[in-house]
Amino acid sequence: NLQSREPLAPSAAAWPAALLEAPRVASWLASSSPFTVYSTAEGPPGEEVVAPLAALLAGARCGVVVAGAMRSDAGRRAAAALAARLGWPLLADINSGLRKPGAAGESEGTTSAAAVRSVPLYDLLIGAEEVAPPDVVLMAGGR
């Protein structure tokens, strides 16, 4: 066995001042609302959901789409198309069904833009110092 540091142990290091002074973080710290916003809908979302999301996506410099558990091919195609449209990498959970070729609906012999940017073994990259953290994480599907 090889000992390594405890990955979830609390760190005694202070939060970087630049992070705490960022406009989005500063406004969140001054409010009582959660930083993460969950949205679920039975049908197409209304303007009250779309407008803030569109503004967030438009201002993102380094985003990523995370595909969680999905039960339908339509959901898989939509998540892959969204990642391709945004030009963001797609982190596909094993339960998304998007890890295998053709899962996003591309025809045989072709590769969708989202499939090309799909990141295999992404769990090894999360938290690595060499990888810039995303400023927006868009989750599609279940956990």
Automatic annotation (TrEMBL):
Which lineage do the record's taxonomy fields give for this organism? Eukaryota, Haptista, Haptophyta, Prymnesiophyceae, Isochrysidales
Location of the Menaquinone biosynthesis protein MenD middle domain: 25-101
Source domain of life? Eukaryota
Any one Pfam family here would be: TPP_enzyme_M_2
The organism is Emiliania huxleyi
Which protein, by its recorded name, is this? Menaquinone biosynthesis protein MenD middle domain-containing protein
Against InterPro entries, the record matches this protein to: MenD_middle
